[in-house]
Amino acid sequence: MSEIGAPGIESCGDFNLRIGHDGTWYYHDSPIRRIALAKLFSTVLRREGDGSYWLVTPAERGRILVEDVPFIAVEMDVARKGRDQILSFRTNLDDRVEAGESHPLRVVTDPRTAEPSPYVMIRDRLEARLARPVFYQLVDLGVEETVDGRASFGVWSNGKFFPLGDTT
After folding, report:
1. What is the span of the domain harbouring residue 125?
2. Is the Cβ–Cβ distance between 158 and 151 less than 8 Å?
3. 135 and 120 in contact (C-beta within 8 Å)?
4. pLDDT in tens, 16-69
5. How many distinct structural domains can be found in the chain?
6. What is the CATH number of the domain that holds 40?
7. Distance CA 46, CA 126 (A)
8. Are residues 81 and 128 in the same domain?
9. Which has the closest alpha carbon to 24: 92, 79, 126, 119?
10. Beta pairing class for 71-79 and 126-130
């Protein structure tokens, strides 16, 4: 049984919380201005296999709306170079991860506009979208590699290559 459906946890329905596309947390459509409160909520945020988002405590759970993903990667640090490179990301709520096997990078391209949307896994099915300046910084580090017989443009982090797009 999933954590959301665990016995003994009271379902409170919809909490009237929303995380906007820009990473802002809202309660009844009013922005939550206390960053410490948003950080606290984020520690009990869970995502189910069906894509729904919930705040889950030992006593209760409630659904929240997330417009895209719950976090925005607002900063990237780079250590080393080439295949030994390590890319570290900080989110708008101060989570920190190093891209690698446990925290993969992915890029989704909008089929209508061809606009890329880059993401990094933060924890347990919760992702951060890279802010545009962070994505530009990432692209500046890109190299061409052959992946599955195709030329691919991407970046290395923690010994893993992450494609950002085809070179064609």
Report:
1. 71-159
2. no
3. no
4. 999 999 999 999 999 999 999 999 999 999 999 999 999 999 989 999 999 999
5. 2
6. 3.10.540.10
7. 7
8. yes
9. 92
10. parallel
